[in-house]
Amino acid sequence: MKGIITIAGFGTRFLPASKAVPKEMIPIAGKPLIQYHVEGLVAAGITEIIVVARDNSHVVHSHFSPDLELREHLKESGKVDLLESMERIDTMADIVFVRQPEDLPYGNATPALAARNWLTPGEPFYYMFGDDIVTGDVPIPQQLLDTFYRETPAAVLAVQEVPDDETHLYGCVELKPGSDNEMTRIVEKPAPGTAPSNLVQIGHFVFTPEIFDVLDGLETGKGGELWLADAVDALANRSRVAVHPIDGVWMAAGDPLRQLKACIEVSLRRDDMREELIAYMRSVIR
Fewest beta carbons less than 10 Å away: which of 11, 48, 122, 146? Predict the structure, then answer.
């Protein structure tokens, strides 16, 4: 199975930084966000990865490419641990970069169409948005793959349960009557008190090639964009789409405040940062 990571947006909420650097390269506790995504896929056995990006993907490409001068510097400096970590980044996955064509409509489903020619015909694939992060003992790709292989649906959708007063912020999943894990549709940002459930979609999916049958006939939706939620709804109308409540903490890192929260959450899970960070936060909170 191959994996697709989408980083084709403009990152407007991170301007001016994202003018030159994709927001997925902005670090979370010292590591670029996209590296967490690649490591999660690799941990689940997915080592062939397609990154769908705009023209500024050279920064991401450089991150996952060998830097011989850096390697030599680390070697001469005796920084063996750093050298090994850099070599691991260079070799842990086979990554190809695909530019999203301008003739395709804008939207979060469009990267799937852009990557189609690089997928293996007839095989399922993993699809993920590039601006979220999930921490947990079992990487989220492995969680979704376990559900996919156990139940063999047309797709698996990762979901997270949120409090009642937050459902209006997300796309909420409506389950089929009598089912606890088969969806019928996604209700985008329902009015308070009208959400069909407390399960909200997050940016991780496993799809069979049937999703392309849907996308080929899907019209653009709100704002003239090609929405993946619309495609998933259409797929659920014709086939079984399973939902998987994730075991972990989901954090949307798509704007500076949420990115800062994600940094804190990840740092608190690191033994080399936790105690000093806690002490610092206690010193500045008044």
Answer: 122
In this predicted model, what pLDDT tens digit does every residue of 180-234 receive, in sequence order?
899 999 988 888 888 899 999 998 999 999 999 999 988 877 878 888 999 999 9
Q: Domains of the chain: which residue ranges?
A: 2-160+201-255
Whole-number Å distance between alpha carbons of 1 and 139: 16
Q: Does residue 97 contact residue 169 with C-beta atoms inside 8 Å?
A: no
Cα separation, 286 vs 151, whole angstroms: 51
- The low-confidence residues of the chain, meaning pLDDT below 50, are none
- 């998987």: which residue's tokens? 244
Give me the CATH code for the 2-160+201-255 domain, please.
Answer: 3.90.550.10
**Cβ-contact 218, 109 below 8 angstroms:** yes
> For 121-198, where are the E strands, in sequence order?
125-129, 132-135, 155-161, 171-175, 183-188
The answer, as to whether pTM is greater than 0.85, is: yes
